[in-house]
Each structure stands twice: as structure tokens, then as C-alpha cells.
Amino acid sequence: MTAHPPPAPAVPACHGDVCITCSDVAVAVRVRELLADGLAVVDTDAGPEEVSVALVEAGPGDVVLVHAKEAIAVVERRP
Q: Using the 8-state DSSP alphabet, how is residue 8 labeled?
């Protein structure tokens, strides 16, 4: 009998505009205050939340897009 390698595990595929793995959802939130270590408190619909701003240059009053608790873009600078 010939041994065959096991089948490769199925990898979720992305189709259209939405990735089934992460939903490709980013939420616009306003930065309330900067904390140490690249973190910030932002205002969300559910109340204040701590997120990482290590990938962007954002400050209090700026609006950032957040995905998986990571700010990925600044969409509006503070006035």
C-alpha cells in the first residue's frame, strides 16, 4: 500500500469586499488621550476603550480607523 501525504488544511478564502477571517471592519473613533507604550484611550459607541496607536501618528482629538484594537489610519486631524 502506498502512503499518501495528508490533505492540506483548508484555508479560509476572501471573496468580494469582505474577508471571512477578520470581516475587514475598521471603526472610526476619536482619540481621547495618549497613554504610554503607543496606547491611547478612544471614544467608541460603547464608551472609552484602550487601543494601540503605534502604527500611526495620532493625538488627542484626531479620528483614527481602528481594526482589532489597532489604529491603522488617521482620517481626520484635530482642529
A: P
pLDDT, mean of residues 26-42: 96
Tell me what the mean pLDDT of segment 42-70 comes to: 95
Q: How far apart are CA 71 and CA 28, in angstroms?
A: 9
- Condensed to tens digits (0 to 9), the pLDDT of residues 5-17 reads 666 555 445 555 5
How far is C-alpha 58 from the chain's CA centre? 15
Q: Where are the beta strands (DSSP E) in the chain?
A: 27-34, 39-44, 47-52, 63-67, 70-76
Q: What are phi and psi of 7, to 5 degrees?
A: -65, 150
